[in-house]
Design goal:
Helix content: 10-25%
Number of domains: 1
Strand content: 25-35%
Distance between the termini: 87 Å
Order of helices and strands: HHHEHEHEEHEEEEHEEE
Number of helices: 7
Structural class: alpha/beta
Radius of gyration: 22 Å
Length: 241
């Protein structure tokens, strides 16, 4: 009976909570933010654990794109950033479908991550298929001047553009992954690379440029004195006329 009691106690013992904070938060950081927040239901001691997780991964979708009621709404992201403690954010990943409904909020979310000294920023932003919205989302200036940003991954289209405010940007950026998705604003893409990437070591540019005329050329002038690895891969369809 005694051995069975010890076995039962071992089975229900909460060993995770006894781990050092650094290891504990590292484990929780592998969860999507929605699931990390749910850990507050496990016990009273876990009530605010998610607020200390250094990595945030959020997925938001416009009802026009995805009617699944279980998909987090923008208010969820607002609350996560509002109630999270003031510690730094190491990695912020945002996947948003139907961004034409959330331009102002996306700007605010990204700026909040920048203020929290984000190191890695992943932005997968898409408009609703066949939408007739003619505006575009310009990534906030704070991204280009952020001193803590080391890794940046983003997707650019004709409605998601990144235009540097001046020729001296990304002071600490070492890894840049730019995926272009048709239709893409070719001129805006060229402007992104008009600045000097003083610390950049890895650059990946890839995606689908769509249909280009025979006389249309994409010119990219890349200034990166510390660049070690460069990968460029485009899918292009040529059309005459």
């Amino acid at each position: 009976m005694g051995s069975n009691s010890k076995l039962f106690k071992a089975c229900i013992e909460d060993r995770i909570s006894g781990l050092p904070d650094a290891i504990f938060f590292h484990i929780i950081s592998f969860l999507e933010t929605r699931d990390a927040v749910k850990t507050c239901l496990l016990s009273h001691t876990w009530n605010n654990v998610w607020t200390y997780v250094p990595n945030l991964e959020v997925y938001v979708s416009s009802p026009k794109y995805d009617s699944d009621e279980h998909v987090p709404q923008p208010g969820f992201v607002d609350r996560v950033l509002l109630f999270r403690n003031l510690s730094n954010i190491h990695k912020f990943s945002l996947i948003c479908l139907g961004i034409e409904d959330y331009f102002d909020r996306i700007d605010a979310w990204v700026c909040t991550a920048i203020r929290r000294n984000v190191v890695e920023l992943n932005l997968d932003l898409y408009t609703t298929p066949s939408n007739s919205y003619e505006g575009c989302l310009k990534l906030p200036t704070s991204i280009f001047i952020c001193k803590t940003l080391v890794v940046l991954k983003l997707i650019l289209t004709d409605q998601v553009i990144a235009i540097p405010p001046n020729s001296s940007c990304f002071p600490s950026l070492k890894y840049l992954d730019v995926q272009v998705s048709y239709p893409v604003a070719v001129d805006a893409l060229a402007k992104l690379f008009s600045c000097c990437f003083s610390a950049l070591e890895d650059l990946i540019i890839h995606g689908n440029l769509g249909r280009l005329r025979d006389d249309e050329v994409l010119n990219l002038t890349i200034s990166a004195p510390k660049l070690k690895r460069l990968q460029i891969k485009f899918c292009v369809v040529r059309s005459r006329g």
